[in-house]
Amino acid sequence: MSDNARGVWYMALATFVFGLMTVFVKLVPSIPPLEIIFFRAVIALILCYWGLKRARVSMWGNNKTMLIMRGVAGVMALSLNFWLVQEIPLATASTLTYLAPISTTLIGIWFVKEKVSPIQGLFFITSFAGILVIQGFDARVSLFHLGVGLVTCLFMGIAYNCVRKLSTSEHPLVIIFYFPAVCLPVTAVGCLLFWVQPQGWEWFYLFMVGITSQVAQYFMTRSYQLAEISTVSIVNYTGIIYAIVLGYIIFGEGFNLLTYLGMALVIVGVILNIVWKQHSKKPVVSDSSSVVIK
Description:
The chain is mainly alpha-helical. It has helices at residues 3-26, 33-55, 64-87, 90-97, 100-111, 118-137, 143-166, 172-194, 201-226, 229-236, 239-251, 257-279, 285-288. It contains 13 helices and no strands.
């Protein structure tokens, strides 16, 4: 099997495991998102520290301000995303976060002086039209949920652009390490204020959130190392299929035809933007950097 083929399989596996992670998040609806992230951050911090020691790389980095900024934006994005997963159907929550590459591009105009062509504007409008269709034809999704989804993508876009800035000065493991390092103190405060004692199987679900996220991060990272970014980035969007299937099997979530159409419009707009950027010889950093956000 070629490296490119293995990369595609690794991305498919990573996307599926990320889907399982959202299932475990949804299985603890009574646990506040900050508390879930705290448990995840503990596991991630241990594994990241082990990786840095093994690679003999200093964990502190050079641009500490930007690293902390990236960590804070990541915490905000993940907290809002987990809240959405608990509140609305899995597939809908996943679809909303797939707008992140668009927010990354728009923020990049200012942040990293990225140029956006007029045709990309058409792709963006297509995706946003899909979101409006979803909201208009699914009573479970309110305008507030839509707003939270857009703010989530805004923070994801800030975090991705920070990664783009840091990629020239920091080791990848350092960038990854700062995410749980910032998560822990921030979420610890949230836990002190809003702690909910996990009961029974909830301990197992919280543990699995941490494990599945790290397993998925590993396979996603390996995927980007082996295959072309443009290829595996598109494979990443098969996650909507996993979300639909898992949501139906485990939580009995179903959708009407127009809601499926809305999801399709979102994904089509984002994928066309990725293909256009690749065709224009622009790196698709927004997707590759997602390995350190999810």
